[in-house]
Amino acid sequence: PPVIRREDYQPPAWLVPEIALDFTLGVDATRVVSRLTVRRNPHGDGAALRLNGDNIAPLGVKVDGVAVNDWRLDGADLLIDLAGDAHAVEVETAVNPAANSQLMGLYASNGMLCTQCEAEGFRRITFFPDRPDVLSTYRVRMAGDKAAFPILLSNGNCVAQGDDADGTHWAEWHDPWPKPCYLFALVAGDLVANHDSFTTMSGRKVDLNIWVRPGDEARTHHAMASLKAAMRWDEETFGREYDLDLFNIVAVSDFNMGAMENKGLNVFNTRYVLADPETATDADYDAVEGVIGHEYFHNWSGNRVTCRDWFQLSLKEGFTVLRDQLFSADMGSEAVKRIEDVRVLRSAQFPEDSGPLAHPIRPDSYQEISNFYTATVYNKGAEVIRMMRTMAGPERFRQGTDLYFARHDGEAATCEDFVKAIEDGSGLDLGRFRLWYGQAGTPQVKVALTHAGTTATLALSQAVPVTPGQPEKQPMPIPLRVALFDRESGRHGGERLIVLDKASDSFTFDGFSAPPVLSINRGFSAPVSIEADRSNADLVFLAAHDDDPFARYEAMQSLVVRHLVAAVGGGLSPDDRAAGRAAIGEAFAAFLADGALDDLMRGELMILPSETYLAEQLLVADPGAIHAEREALKAWLGHALQAALIALHDRASAVPYSRDAAARGARKLKTQALIYLAAGAPEEAARRAIAQYRAADNMTDRQGALMVLCGLAVPEREEALADFHARYHGNALVIDKWFSLQAGSLHPQVLDHVQALAGHPDFTMHNPNRVRALYMAFAVNPKGFHVADGEGYRIIGDLIRRLDPINPQTAARFVPPLGRWRRIEPGRSAMMRAELERIAAAPSLSRDVLEQVTKSLG
Ligand code: B3K
Ligand code: ZN
């Protein structure tokens, strides 16, 4: 497949200021007439009009009202030579939404029709310059059977509608804001809305609707509350006001991603809309709030200011992720949100950055852009912008974002435009900081603290690892929030922000009569990996005393990482092992008993570093050994702290259900306590888990209990699984949980379970949520995926081959777990690689899978 390069960018030869689309809707056949007003771009190269297409054929082409046939096809694109500088071009196409299993373009989902155009789905509907720097105002007319499609929606405002005699009806929509075609959307179906309204800061009333299938209305209240909170928050925090009189959200059950920010008509995966206490966990509630916020925030960061080309994807995604993170932090616990975000970064982005698919947040080339909607572009992209905010401070950062929006409103901008606006608006010098956009790889920072007289000296050095296509790296500015604690008082004399902008540097701190304890990268101020030679005692000290909650969590994590890495390497004598466990146990016991901690934070501190993150610490990892050591530590803690864990579970179980922070904290603890008990005292855990399951009046407790039972070979497991399935039969999102919990479990027969579930009547390859529920839960379950005989790899390899012809975008998402082979011990490594080779040898692979597999082998 051809390689698209960032440096080859050329402005479009033709602009399309206006488009009118006319849809005659049908589930098996929809006809589309597209009328474009095209104008030659003075900055273009004077070439023919190129309209991209994908899997469509032109049924008729007119230029200035006259049918022509001197058009030609170049691959899938339609080329039309035009004599003048301005023309009207009309193209007719037909598509079959029911046959569209890729879920890109116009497709059918449960009898309704909907679209997904980002990144390149619009070209599967009609011929168009499908690139984000061509902005048009849209008029959309749709007509169709009124019984099948009582609701007809598109972007902007509905300007006219009517009924026809033959049982059909029609509607016309107009979106006044010019937009690229990836933000176009259409929805037609039998939907009901939760209606509400929001009054903007300038006093305009906006109608809000969340559209769902009849019967789901009662589960939309949290989404609506989140939407209104997001609208207010963006006004207050970023000065951004909504710009239409109507905002529609539609929930769709067949969807490749989480949601899509189409202008005025966001389309959502049902899983990020529907929530009630009976069917959604606290984490699900948080995810709904976060994704509703994310898509809403795109109205400015993405829609009003869009991307010039897809290499700039992080311009909208990194910035919008940062915005949704700050929003969620303000809605709940800032400390807990930060920890969760770092955990996602470390388990999803760090491995990406150190593997064969590593790319900078602004990639230099791609074959299939869908493969670049990654944790790097999204989450590391957010971290990079967060560093600018940390260095500027929130007020000056806001001056930068104000300038960015003012300067580029209505434009298709670049990452460089963003950095320049932050620079000009905030007064920061971001000269070398721009390297963060171009260099892939997680910087490794080495830290040593020495003490002499009354001075502590912090010596730092950095190295950015080699990544594919980037053999040489330059040092980057790394902002580190640092505090030095006095061992006696347990306090520090103020935090300092230092910026390491060279390969190595040192910083001095005066006024310490004794060697202080170092707290560094507080708040995770930079997305780097820190290598510091700190004693267990110092880490235990920080885990107990650090006033930065992230640093406290981090000290705990470091303590565990260090112990487990040494254990896995076989370098622990029995005495060392006992000492390491004792230090961890001491820290655990301290925060379990710490009355000053809230339970949500206590629950975070209880979570051990993931096996993926542990594997990242090793050049070559043995997943079996990592799993065994981590489980052994859990069992030791569960056993050693059994009384405290039981007391915790009892205390938390007495808290009645509510959505407030204290009750959510209690629920988090209940499940965490069960997890440790399951490892250290399985009978006690099984008793408690089935009791929690039976008594549950909410999904958090029920799912937590079922998750723990799923990992135990006990009769209560079957009872709970059968009850769960019967109770929620027909509720797709909850049945997804039923699949995930089994596929992600610690049960010794997890592989057999996965294979049986693949043949379950509720399983289908055509619904991405269901595919992910079974297979992604399995692919990220180290116990199952890395089983020593390689069967886990074969399961995922088979899945990729079978799913690719149906849904290549989703199939490609399963390649990265296999792509880790170079960093895995030789036996498994060879089997992972062989699996990739089997995939590569399959006839006619999609561009999506081919790119990921080739790069993973390369
Ligand atoms: N912008 C969409 C991503 C859609 C990508 C489809 N390949 C979701 C989001 O980030 O908000
Ligand atoms: Zn986004």
From TrEMBL:
Peptidase M1 membrane alanine aminopeptidase domain boundaries: 223-433
Annotated ranges, domain Peptidase M1 alanyl aminopeptidase C-terminal: 537-857
Enzyme Commission (EC) number: 3.4.11.2
Cofactor(s) required, per the database record: Zn(2+)
InterPro entries: Aminopeptidase_N-like_N, Aminopeptidase_N-like_N_sf, PepN_Ig-like_sf, Peptidase_M1, Peptidase_M1_dom, Peptidase_M1_pepN, Peptidase_M1_pepN_C, Peptidase_M1_pepN_C_sf
Coiled coil (UniProt feature): none
Catalytic reaction annotation: Release of an N-terminal amino acid, Xaa-|-Yaa- from a peptide, amide or arylamide. Xaa is preferably Ala, but may be most amino acids including Pro (slow action). When a terminal hydrophobic residue is followed by a prolyl residue, the two may be released as an intact Xaa-Pro dipeptide
Domain Aminopeptidase N-like N-terminal span(s) in chain numbering: 99-183
Record-level Gene Ontology MF annotations: alanyl aminopeptidase activity
Enzyme class: hydrolase
Peptidase M1 alanyl aminopeptidase Ig-like fold domain ranges (all copies): 441-532
Keywords, alphabetical: Aminopeptidase, Hydrolase, Metal-binding, Metalloprotease, Protease, Zinc
Domain of life: Bacteria
PANTHER family referenced in this protein's UniProt entry, alphabetically: PUROMYCIN-SENSITIVE AMINOPEPTIDASE
Family annotation (NCBIfam families): pepN_proteo
Family: Belongs to the peptidase M1 family.
Protein name: Aminopeptidase N
Source taxonomy: Bacteria, Pseudomonadati, Pseudomonadota, Alphaproteobacteria, Sphingomonadales
Record gene name: pepN
